[in-house]
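Internal tracking record. Fields below are filled automatically when a chain is submitted to the structure queue. Please do not edit lines marked as system-generated. If the sequence contains nonstandard residues, flag them in the REMARKS field before resubmitting.
Queue: standard
Priority: normal
Entity type: single polypeptide chain
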Amino acid sequence: MWAALRLRFRPVPTELVTKETIVAAGNELRVDRHRMTVTKVPPDVLSQRLAWARIHQKNGWIAFRGETLETVAAEFNRYNGRQLVIGDAATGQLLVGGKFRLTDLDGFLAALEVTHGVKAVVSPPSGRQPAVIVLIGGVSGSAWSDEGSGPADR
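SYSTEM-GENERATED OUTPUT FOLLOWS
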């Protein structure tokens, strides 16, 4: 179970801090001067705040399940010189899943075309801007599903 801890601090002299508060999973702690407030975070809000945690990286691999293509492309961009750009909003909202080497853009792009019909078009460099790979098209019928039959489960 993931625990979320969101702190907002304002400077408080250290001699005033005398109380310890344990924050259980699914709650958030707010500190405002001499007052601490623990509140329950609704499940949908908690899910949004922890969306990044559904992408796992280990030993040069990235695994994700049911993430938007926009989110996954941003993660690949962190590790590659060749950058992915989402061509339109609908393409960016496609749900994708799988396990790839962080540096295997070609394998990721090939899988996107097979599973979602997404085309990768290389946009040539323009002035000081480097070439980018624009992702366009695609169908909403995803190879990923809640039932656990998507590529991330294989």
